[in-house]
Amino acid sequence: MTRLKGEPGDLPLVCLPHAGAGAASFARWPRLFDPPIGVLRAQLPGREDRVTEPPLSRVADAVDLLYPEVAALPPVALYGHSMGAVIAYELARALTADGRPPVHLFVSGRRAPHLRGRHSGVHRLPDDEFAEALGSAVIGPPRFLRYALTLTRADLTLSEEYAGSAERLPCPVTAFHGAQDPLVALDEVEAWAAVTREFALHLFEGEHLFHQPRRVEIADLIGKALG
Question: Which of 27, 125, 153, 187 places its Cα 20 to 30 Å from the Cα of 50?
Answer without folding.
Answer: 125
